[in-house]
Write a structure and sequence with these properties.
- The complex is a heterodimer.
- Chain A is built from 14 helices and 21 strands.
- Chain A has helices at about 10-25, 50-60, 125-135, 150-160, 175-180, 185, 190-205, 265-270, 305-320, 325-345, 370-380, 385-395, 405-410, 430-435, and strands at about 1-10, 30, 65, 70-80, 80-90, 95-105, 110, 125, 145-150, 170, 210, 215-220, 225-230, 245-250, 250-255, 260, 270-275, 280, 295, 360-365, 370.
- In chain A, helix 4 (about 150-160) crosses helix 7.
- The longest helix of chain A is centred in the last third of the chain and has 21 residues, at about 325-345.
- In chain A, strands 1, 2, 3, 4, 5, 6 and 19 form a seven-stranded mixed beta sheet that branches. Chain A has a five-stranded parallel beta sheet with strand order 8-15-9-10-11.
- In chain A, strand 2 (about 30), helix 2 and strand 3 (about 65) form a beta-alpha-beta unit.
- By secondary structure, chain A is α/β, with parallel strands linked by helices.
- In chain A, about 30% of the residues lie in helices and about 25% in strands.
- Chain B has one helix spanning about 25-30; strands at about 5-10, 15, 35, 45, 60, 65-70, 80, 85.
- Chain B is globular.
- Helices cover about 10% and strands about 30% of the residues of chain B.
- The N and C termini of chain B lie far apart (about 45 Å).
- The chains are: A alpha/beta, B mainly beta.
- Chains A and B meet through strand 8 and helix 3 of A and helix 1 and strand 4 of B.
- Chain A: Keywords: Oxidoreductase.
């Protein structure tokens, strides 16, 4: 059986696309790695209340073939159709879906910048802490410092405080006054302003200290984190000497914004662009078409911009697949994209963060490769790019395949991070590869190109 | 009606989990933050990214090593053990 449209990812973009396309009479298959729809932002416990934005969409999922716990590890062309190969369920069973069109709505994951002590238990991703709280009703501790950069931190601090944690400090490396310089984008997004005010209000009630232009430059402890050092940063994010002070905590929730999940897109050869924070994202035109005919993309994978933008892009993509368009949606996309670009520029990591690292700091958590070894590879062995550093040190060759350390290693090697290129988007049992009809996926080079059209153009 | 809690064990210790919780969430709720030691330095590790990306939370569950504890739903009677190194050393 061949679906008219296969949607990869059941977050806001994928859900919106699936219901919109099904509403236009298309035969839609929706695949998602998680057990329950909603994506990372709307994670919710089994048998618990379903978040309203998810409920609104899942109610309309009738007519959509929803395949939960299906992790798509590659998409390959097969004549006029696409084959999506999956690892399904806890037993990692093979599954394949055939479709005439594919929408990639694979979302994003959290950017991490290493610092001494970040491998201690109790140091967790900010988005991860929130996801574990939403999905598992679990808190890793009671006194939580939230640190890093980006608007997600406000949401995380609020969620943690509302769940009963004490958040003594929210430490933001950027300066919110940078938003003021981009006021037009903010003024056109009153909803976002209200959201920010809401976060501020509930934080105040929970007595959180907001420190901008500051960073956690070290975590301390032996078997787990017991305190962090918070230091003031200069404009390049270099710690200002003599400003470090110790803040006791039993958890540090840290993250530096989100980066698009690109493997399936780059594996297909889709062109990428660079967002204002220096991160590669899938390049799409005004109707969410990638550079590869038959492949659409929507949501954070095209550039991080929040759930409302993701839903809008999902609807635009679905309409396009169905041969339709909406000027109102295009205008909304342009407005939300402008806001996302302003945020990305304000929170772009500045180069001085590498001064947080001492030589003993592990940069690659999987392979336990220290900053000293990476620097040695660059300064003494002549590595000029992240790939050579990887070959010399094994940084990025472990379980996570460089998802966590890739950005940091690229910076230490003096480059901007390259678009992710991983032929398999998740671990796949060897037996499944052996049973593929052909040799396997083509990992064609993905050109890096500016977006084919200005955002929102029709 | 609230879903009924159930029990599992971690390194022989009995823990209580809620239906729908991942293994990592159940361990966190019991105050356990580390359930793996690294291959080279033997350092303690637990959940970091919380969403299946980083693979730091690998655990041995019911004898099967290298399970991502943050993704794997906890089930009644699960036996979770600290994973040493690659999980294939023993």
């Amino acid at each position: 059986m061949t679906a008219d449209l296969a949607v990869v990812g059941a977050g806001p973009a994928g859900l919106a696309a699936a219901v919109t396309a099904a509403g236009r009479g298309l035969d839609v298959t929706l695949l998602d790695a998680a057990e329950r729809p909603g994506g990372q932002i709307h994670r919710h416990p089994a048998r618990g209340p379903v978040p309203r934005p998810v409920r609104r969409l899942t109610r309309r999922l009738r007519g959509v073939t929803h395949l939960p716990a299906h992790h798509v590890w590659t998409v390959v062309r097969d004549g006029d159709t696409w084959l999506l190969h999956c690892v399904a369920g806890p037993d990692e069973a093979p599954a394949t879906v055939r479709a005439r069109a594919v929408l990639l709505a694979t979302g994003a994951y959290e950017r991490q910048l290493p610092f001494p002590g970040w491998t201690l238990p109790g140091v967790v991703g900010a988005g991860g802490a929130q996801a574990m709280l939403k999905g598992g009703l679990a808190l890793p501790g009671r006194r939580v410092v939230v640190a890093g950069s980006g608007p997600l931190l406000l949401a995380v601090a609020t969620t943690l405080a509302a769940a009963g944690a004490r958040v003594p400090a929210l430490v933001e490396a950027a300066d919110y006054t940078a938003y003021a310089r981009r006021l037009p984008a903010l003024v056109r997004n009153p909803g976002k302003l209200a959201q920010g005010a809401l976060h501020g209000g509930s934080l105040l009630r929970h007595t959180t200290r907001l420190l901008t232009r500051h960073a956690v430059t070290a975590a301390h402890g032996t078997r787990r984190v017991e305190a962090v050092t918070v230091a003031r940063l200069d404009a390049d994010w270099r710690p200002v000497p003599g400003t470090g002070r110790r803040v006791p905590c039993d958890v540090l929730a840290v993250g530096h914004g989100l980066v698009p999940q690109l493997e399936l897109a780059t594996g297909l050869g889709c062109a990428t662009r660079r967002t204002p924070d220096g991160t590669p994202a899938v390049a799409v035109d005004g109707r969410q078409r990638t550079s590869v005919p038959g492949i659409w993309a929507a949501g954070e994978t095209c550039g991080v911009g929040g759930a409302e933008l993701a839903r809008t892009e999902g609807e635009i993509a679905a309409l396009c697949v169905a041969g339709d368009a909406s000027a109102a949606l295009a205008r909304r996309r342009a407005r939300l994209r402008a806001f996302a670009d302003a945020m990305a520029a304000a929170h772009r990591p500045r180069p001085g963060w590498t001064d947080w690292l001492d030589d003993a700091t592990e940069v690659c958590r999987c392979e336990e490769v220290t900053a000293g070894r990476v620097r040695h590879a660059v300064a003494e062995l002549g590595a000029l790019d992240a790939r050579t550093v990887k070959l010399l040190t094994r940084a990025g060759m472990g379980w996570c395949q460089g998802r966590v350390c890739g950005q940091a290693v690229a910076r230490l090697a003096g480059e901007d991070p390259a678009p992710d290129r991983r032929p398999l988007s998740c671990p796949v049992p060897l037996s499944q590869l052996a049973h593929l009809p052909e040799a396997g996926p083509e990992a064609g080079p993905a050109p890096e190109a500016p977006a084919p059209e200005a955002p929102g153009a029709e | 009606m609230k879903p009924a809690p159930f029990s599992l064990t971690f390194d022989g210790r009995r823990l209580t989990a809620l239906p729908g919780q991942s293994i990592a969430a159940a361990l966190w709720s019991a105050g356990i933050l580390a359930w793996r030691t690294t291959r080279h330095g033997g350092a303690p590790r637990g959940a970091f990214c919380g969403m299946g990306t980083c693979y730091d939370c690998l655990a041995t569950v019911n004898g099967r090593p290298n399970q991502r504890a943050c993704l794997l739903p906890a089930r009644p009677g699960d036996t979770v053990t600290t994973q040493e190194g690659t999980g294939h050393d023993g």
